[in-house]
Amino acid sequence: MNYTESREHSAEILRAVLGHLGQHDAAFNPVSFALWYEHLAGINPALTQALTPLLLGGRRLTDAEVLQLFRSHIAPLDQQAVEKISGRFTQTMIGLAESALRTGDDAGRFGDQLNGLAEALRSGGVDGLSPQLNLALENTAGMRSSAHALQQQVASSRVQIDQLQAELGRARHEALLDPLTRVLNRRGFDQRLAMMLQQPMQADRTHCLIMFDIDHFKRVNDTHGHVTGDRVIQALGEVLRTCISADNCTVARYGGEEFAVLVPQSTLVQSAALAESVRQHTRAMKIRNRKTQDVLLMVTVSAGVAGMNGSDDALSLIARADGALYQSKQAGRDRVSCA
Where are the domains of the chain? Predict the structure, then answer.
């Protein structure tokens, strides 16, 4: 999820988030913060839909419930990233709490002095009034200083929380990327596919799915080793990024040597032409020995294309694209077939 709210708007959301955090039993950590931020900002309808029934009747959410909602509707995080950001978030909140506690203690002492001054005024004792006035003046200055320190701490904490929010977004994005190819991983693909299927199709358009598979990839690993196999997978990822440049398209590593491309608001003919472009660019690719620059091997891919029909869900669309891919394999590989 990309956060595009302005600084002023995000500050308003932040205040609302802090209010909601205190109303539930879940810990004050980045997972809870992200959950409430996306809900209150109105940028995650699926999350809001799942969250709303749970909030009926003033129910207090637990850590387990918050984590489950986060995993289902936002994204998983790398555990080390969670621990790092969580620790910094906790330190920020502890600092803010300690500053507020100090201000509260100063306010309590100031209140005691005001009570003493009021008592001196009621008794009419002039001798006792002067010391009480001096103490009140001293504590007024101390109270002003504590309030100013708290204000600065709140401002500093807001900056730190903004930074943590940015780190959280980056960590969540990294969790959806395949580390070898830097395209989306399977989990990222599943999320984008669900989003695509929720979009109403325009007239004479459909949502298409292209599945690619590297031909004879086991032979590549057996002959040249897994390091070269990884280079082949990386090279295909680069070809896909080059050929599939449209902002609305999604490239993902579906698993192993298989890749998937989501093409919303397209036609079967257009998507097949896109798959053919990838096939041709892959065929022209040469994997070379890094020391001698001799050509080690040439690579081909098979592809299957399916367009969404009225009865399709995610599983049936994948199954039809996979079936078209199987047709390409059976027909001799290095070709594109349509479902």
Answer: 7-73, 79-175, 186-338
Tally Cβ neighbours within 10 Å of residue 235: 17
**Rounded CA separation 261/271 (Å):** 9
Question: Distance between CA 205 and CA 210 in Å, rounded?
Answer: 16
Over residues 34-89, the pLDDT tens digits come to 899 988 888 888 888 888 888 887 789 999 899 889 888 886 555 556 556 556 66
* Stated pTM of the model: 0.56
Q: What is the residue-wise DSSP string for 16-66?
A: HHHHHHTTSSS-SSHHHHHHHHHHHHT--HHHHHHHHHHTGGGPPPPHHHH
Is 186-338 assigned to CATH 3.30.70.270? yes
pLDDT digits (tens, 9 = 90+) for 208-227: 999 999 999 999 999 999 99
Nearest to 238 by CA among 275, 285, 274: 285
Calculate helix-pair angle for 126-175, 30-41, nearest 10 degrees.
Answer: 90
Query: Identity (one letter) of the amino acid at 53?
Result: P
Q: Residue 234 in contact with residue 181, Cβ under 8 Å? A: yes
